[in-house]
Structures are given as C-alpha cells and as structure tokens.
Amino acid sequence: MRAQVPSDSSGESCLFAAVIYGGHNDVVHALVYAGADVNLQSKDGFSPLMIASQEGHIDIVKYLVHYGAKIESQNDQDATALYFAAMKGRVEVVKFLIEHHADVNACHCSGTSCLLIAVWGGHTNVVHALVSAGANVNLQRKDGFTPLMIASQEGHIDIVKYLVHSGVKIESQDDKDATALYYAAKHGCVEVVKFLIEQHADVNACHSSGTSCLLTAVWGGHTDVVRALVSAGADVNLQRKDGVSPLTAASREKKT
Fold first, then answer.
1. What is the b/e burial string over 54-93, where b = at least 16 CB atoms within 10 angstroms of the residue's CB?
2. How far is CA 100 from CA 57, 81, 196, in A?
3. Alpha-carbon gap, residue 38 to 47, rounded angstroms
C-alpha cells in the first residue's frame, strides 16, 4: 500500500514543494513512486507541471508528463504550463510541451496568449517555436493588444520583423484605436518606427483621443521618431480632438 502524501494549508503538496524549491529530481521521483498525485493543484490552481515549466526544470517536466500530468490544466487565471514556460523564456520546455500537443493558442484570463507573453519578455526563440507550431500571430488580448503592438512598444525589432514576415496585420487596432506604429512612436522605438513605415504602416493613424503617431512622439520628446514620421508624410497639422497639434505640444513641453 502506497503512503498518502499530504499538502499544506495553501494546497501545496510535498511534490509541489519539491518542484518549486529547487527542482529536486530525486525527491520528485521518490514522491511520485510513493503515490503523489502529479495533478494535485494548489488553492490558486498551480500544478507541479506549471511550476516545473516556469522554472525550466525540463527533466522534471518530462517525468511528470510521462507519469500522467495533464498538460492543459489551468490555474485560477486560466493559464497553462505552456503559458508559464513561454513567459519565462523556457524554450526547451516550450518545444517539449508543443511536441506533446499543448494548445499554442491557450490564453490567460486577460486574453494574453502564450505568444503575446513570450513577445513581451523578448524571448525570440520561444516566439519562433510558437509561431512555427501554429500560434495565431494576430490573436488579440481582451483590450485589443496584439503581439505586434507589444513587440513594437518594447522595441523588440527582431520579433517585429519576424511577426510581420509571418503575416501579422500591421494596422490592427486595440480598444483605443491605436496601432503598432502608434506604440512604437509613443515609446521612442525609432528602429521599429522606420521598419513599420517601410511596411506601409499608416503614419497618420490616430488613438481614439485623436492623438496621432506624430503627436505622441512629440509629447515624448522622441526627436528621431518625429523626423522619421514627418519624412514619411505624417501630417504636421493633424490635431487631437481637443485641438492640440504637434506644434502646440512641442511648445508646451519646450521641445524644439
């Protein structure tokens, strides 16, 4: 008869603890052999597989899957093991989970996909693995943010180029009507701005407030971005809904 393996008040089992506090392979093996439930989740829904994936413990990930860990289990925010591996840039774990048919389009309760969270972290190899496995490059978060918008605002130029070459929609808008170019301009990511312009992004696209890409670049004092946008035909007289123009914004901020 196998021993019962207890859990603490948080619902974290001995197996969970062995995974999270150091990835002790031998202890994990012993606990599973003694009857530890590989799918027992903590009160917030975390499973041993999620923790092993997040921490990049590939040998434990493989062992847990071999002994029946459910790859698509979700925590209380609907996130899966693949999501956590993608978030932390654990490319070896990501590839293994994909090989075992993990859903590459699974999303956090916010609508954040595995791809979007990998983009946010700048994990280029994980982005490549997910897209190659069929991740939707145009899947939007609940607030409308796309992987391209995130890559653009973070200045991840290699990921921006990869997404565009993988068929991403450059003119997608979030729930405030802003585009990837808008966010690149807002955050002063001039290399991304120039690349998106080369890909025919609309330089006069506006936020729902009427703020243009040029105006938000002026507000931020991003001189190189301002020059790139004006050279590409951005309307220097385009006003926000309250009448603020790039010139008045520059004057207020004393940026000339």
1. bbbbbebbbbbbeeebebebbbeeebbbbbbbbbbbbbeb
2. 16, 12, 36
3. 8
Please identify which residue in the block is written with the tokens 């796309």: 146
With a CB cutoff of 8 Å and minimum separation 6, the contacts of 145 are 116, 174
**Hunting for tokens 């956090």 — which residue is that?**
108
What does the pLDDT average to over 118-134?
98
Q: Which two tokens stand for residue 20?
A: 């999270």
Spatial distance between the Cα atoms of 18 and 30, rounded to a whole number of angstroms: 10
190-213: burial string, b at 16+ Cβ within 10 Å, e else: bebbbbbbeeebbbebbbeeebbb
**Assessment of whether the complete model's pTM goes beyond 0.85:** yes
At the topology level of CATH, where does 145-256 sit? 1.25.40
The DSSP bridge partners found for residue 159 are none
- For the chain, the domains span 1-136, 145-256
Task: Please count the other Cβ atoms lying within 10 Å of the Cβ belonging to residue 35.
Answer: 11
CATH number of the domain located at residue range(s) 1-136 in this protein:
1.25.40.20
The token pair that represents 25 in the structure block: 């392979």
Question: Cβ of 218: how many Cβ atoms within 10 Å?
Answer: 28
For 170-219, what is each residue's pLDDT tens digit? 999 999 999 999 999 999 999 999 999 999 999 999 999 999 999 999 99
